Amino acid sequence: MSDLQRKRRHDGNAGAPFVSALSLSNGSPELECQKLVPLPASKVHIIWSFSKDFGSSGLRLKTAIARFHQWGAPFIYPQAGPYVTVKLVKDAETLEEENEGLERLKQAGVMVSRLRGFGGWKGFSGNLNYYGWVRMTVAVLKDRLLDALNRIADIMKYEEKEGNHSVVTQDECD
């Protein structure tokens, strides 16, 4: 008997523990949620969001991607997870140029991880120049993300591209 089932016998309207579709019980293909006694539909509330699954915010991801579009910065649209792959050091053609750009970001207080450190990049990139590509997290407070994006724009000399007049504001991150 699960803790939830035990508790239900007392108050009938208990909160359920987090149940992931990927969680298995002791190597068994049976999902933990299949072990629970069914609840009446009126007492079941499903809350799902990108934020809860990956520790980041879908709106924060949208904010970063909107800014990359404004800058004309190439990026790889993320399928899942709290990271965006983007070429922040836009003119890097060599390791030295990439290092210089990453050092400028570091001096501005922005920490990112160079993409080459994560397996599979060369196979994925084909003939693309992979210098300057980084992995950037969006799993931070909205104010911190907006501040980091502004610092990146300043230090890397990114400007909004002609014809793209969408503006990212703090309200869009809420």
Automatic annotation (TrEMBL):
Ranges where the Aminotransferase class I/classII large domain occurs: 43-139
Lineage top rank: taxon: Eukaryota
GO function terms (MF aspect): pyridoxal phosphate binding
Annotated signal peptide: none
Cross-referenced InterPro entries: Aminotransferase_I/II_large, PyrdxlP-dep_Trfase, PyrdxlP-dep_Trfase_small
Pfam family, one: Aminotran_1_2
Protein name per its UniProtKB record: Aminotransferase class I/classII large domain-containing protein
Protein source organism: Gibberella moniliformis (strain M3125 / FGSC 7600)
